[in-house]
Amino acid sequence: MGLASSSEGRYIPPRRRAHRAAKEDPLNVQRQENAVAVDKKELLALYQQMLTIRRVEEASAKAYAQGKIGGFLHLGIGQESVCVGAISALNPTDYVVGTYREHGHYIAKGGSAKEVLAELYGKSTGASGGMGGSMHLFNAKNRMLGGYGIVGGHVPLAAGVAFASKYRGTDEVTLCFFGDGSVPQGAFHEGISIAGLWKLPIVFICENNQYSMGTPLYRTLAVADVTERASGYGIARDRFEGHDVLLVKERIAEAVERARKTQQPTLVEVITYRFRGHSMSDPGNYRTKDEVEEWKKRDPITVGRERLIGELKVSEDELISLEAAVKAEVNEAVRFADESPVASEAVMWNSVLSTPDSDPRKI
Amino acid sequence: MRLSYREALNQAMSEEMDRDADIFLMGEEVGHYQGAYKVSQGMLQKFGEKRVIDTPIAECGFAGVGIGAAMVGLRPIVEFMTWNFSLVAIDQIINTAAKVRLMSGGQFKMPIVFRGPGGAAGQLGAQHSQCFESMYANCPGLKVVMPSTPADAKGLLKAAIRDDDPIIFIEGERLYGFQGEVPEGEHLVPIGKGDIKREGTDCTIVSWSKMVHTALEAAEELAKENISVEVVDPRTIRPLDEEMIFESVRKTNRCVILEEGYSFSGIGAEIAARVQSKCFDDLDAPIERINRFEVPMPYAPNLEALITPDVPRIVAAVKRAMYLEKN
Fold first, then answer.
1. B195-321 CATH pick, 3.40.50.720, 3.10.129.10, 3.30.470.30, 3.40.50.920
2. Is residue A362 part of a domain?
């Protein structure tokens, strides 16, 4: 198009205008009021879960710096309300499929801090026996169907899990999490397209943290509102900011009910923010300090804590003792991970194929 | 009973689907159209739309749907109209199907069969004539199966459907109409077990899928010159029945590997490496390899024939291995 400059009065194509607007207000999403219904016991439990996830990830960053864990480590610090709120809307028999930033999802789906940290330490007691690592946390018993490392590649798989539920006539629902970086990827579209066509009981949740690695959304998507794609696939949509865990729960619960009762998929976009870089090697230089500080004002853990004190009159003492318990649990999980036996060679050989053989040439 | 390769595959799927309601067939045109190559003819009428599922043209999407369904216990058969189209689904197959079992520390099985025709089938050009066994066989976590006869097609597909691992089942596009005897009743061929298609004493030819038939033709030619060729068909590329190959080479002391696909990083390279390592003292001549020449498949029939392994090239290779013909 060659419209490099933008002198006054010059025609700017609509897409560019949208881009420009997006640059100023990248998300153009209305700030949400907090969720209406607040239950003290429930919010306390969700707060504790978010805090556990936060502490586990802080502990893993520390262990990474100490060289205790290796590979890639993608932290979701700042995004905890999305996985915790969404997964709390599920039944235990429902399924979760996640990305490589899925420590929180694993814990929210019933996994323990010990299993996450031991996996990161590459130990046999880890979620995947040390075979998966940070990006591939699985728990068959809890129906946590893993984290996947190819951006958007797991979206069709999640549709397949929902397909199986429909094929068998059960009332299970699948939640499929992905980031805004998945949206330009082909697999994302093929998976959602089939789910819409076949009316599968699934909720697609875009955790829009506004950066696909280091590239802001307005430089990756022509249409910044991710949920606009839903209309092309004949599915329902919802879009909101996700720092209030109860609001996330309330809105995802609606989509889950829609999936369960009417087999109608929903594409949900939850605006969120990660406080750390994409992975441990990323200092996040593509964002200003001011921007990060601005979002930290809406830290889901702070928001949860303020609601507990302000609206639910939970005492500071009660919270301090809860926070101490979380800290102790995570410290114990770190010790457990450190002292656990290394990953098992036998499990490795037996996990390549169903016909175990320790001769690599035969498998 | 006498069946075509196509009918044998159809029987295998239908018998298994009769046996187990968790098995379903999914792919482009498998239902109402009755299959692009008519392999699934009549199956929609028999099993209904729930189990014989027409998909949109979205290989990545429906391959992934199959994988997700297999993870939670269904047993999908995913048909690719041809294996050429599997390339847009290869991320699903290699990054997910092959790896979920290991990545989860053995918590999840992956009982899925990906099947469809492979190889050249006559002037289909560069994008529709490819051989993918070496790409898929390069990947631990997958099994690669390539039957050459109707009996093997039926027995191996039934075994593949019952297997708990992801199976790359590559059919010979040129073999669909090929007729052969298929045993009556329950007929299973174990995955990983090869078959001697012709016994001989002077030279071993290792080949699979439709090239087995070209090898048998060449063996017939060579028999006229009193050269006795043994044709061995591993039937499964991975896991490979290397013992059958070693035994044959120990008997004939000569080995020719005939492969429809390219030689560079080909299956023949792997077999040659294993044979030289295990049968070094048994070999009386260097191992010969016959492959498609290293060009994308051209359209013109003379050029397609030029680059494709044929009887004269096989005859020449066997004679070189027997020092009956100079290079």
1. 3.40.50.920
2. no
Both tokens of B249, joined, read 């080479």
Cβ-Cβ contacts under 8 Å between A and B: the total is: 156
Under the banding of pLDDT at 50, 70 and 90, the label for residue A37 is low
Q: Which residues of B are catalytic?
A: 59, 128
Q: Nearest CA to B206 among B136, B259, B243? A: B259
Mode of pairing for the β-strands spanning B113-118 and B167-172:
parallel
> Does A233 contact chain B (CB < 8 Å)?
no
Residue with structure tokens 């990060």?
A: A292
Radius of gyration of chain B (CA): 20
Measure the CA dihedral A241/A245/A250/A253, to 10°.
100
pLDDT per residue over B169-180, tens digit each? 999 999 999 999
CB contact set of B220 (below 8 Å; sequence gap of 6+) = none
- DSSP type of residue A97: E
Judged by DSSP in three states, A89 sits in: coil
Contact A267, A230 (CB under 8 A): yes
Listing DSSP states for B58-108 in one string gives: -HHHHHHHHHHHHHTT-EEEEE-SSGGGGGGGHIIIIIIITTHHHHTTT--
Residue A358 within any structural domain of the chain: no
Q: B233 pairs with which residues across the strands?
A: B195
Q: Which residues pair with B181 in a beta bridge?
A: B2
Residues of chain B with pLDDT under 70: 326-327
**CATH of region B2-181:** 3.40.50.970
pLDDT-based confidence at A356, cuts 50/70/90?
low
pLDDT above 70 as % of chain A: 88
Q: How far apart (Å, rounded) are the C-alpha atoms in residues A309 and A316?
A: 7
Nearest to residue A36, comparing CAs of A206, A241, A249, A242?
Answer: A249
Nearest to A158 among B56, B68, B88 (CB): B68
User: Matching CATH topology for B2-181 and B195-321?
Assistant: yes
> By CA distance, what is B105's nearest residue in A?
A128
Q: How many CB atoms lie within 10 A of CB B188?
A: 14
Question: Which DSSP state fits A183?
Answer: T
Stated as kind and residue range, the H or E segment containing A321 is helix A316-339
Specify the amino acid at residue A187. Answer: A
B215 in Cβ contact with B148 (< 8 Å): no
Residues in chain B: 327
Bridge partners of residue B168, in order along the sequence:
B114, B144
- CA dist B131 and B66 (Å) reads 23
User: Is A34 an 8 Å CB contact of chain B?
Assistant: no
Q: Do A160 and B103 touch (CB under 8 A)?
A: no
Evaluated on CA atoms B207, B212, B218, B219, the torsion sign reads positive
A155 CB within 8 Å of a chain B CB: yes
What is the per-residue pLDDT for A318?
A: 96
Could you tell me the CA-to-CA distances from A78 to A51, A137, A291, A361 in Å, in that order? 11, 20, 13, 46
| ipTM for the whole complex | 0.96
Q: At B27, list the tokens.
A: 């792919």
User: Domain limits at A60?
Assistant: 37-284+293-338
| Model pLDDT for residues B199-249, shown as the tens digit of each residue | 999 999 999 999 999 999 999 999 999 999 999 999 999 999 999 999 999
Q: Are B322 and B202 in contact (CB under 8 A)?
A: yes
B48 touches chain A (CB under 8 A): no
Residue B138, phi then psi, degrees to nearest 5: -75, 0
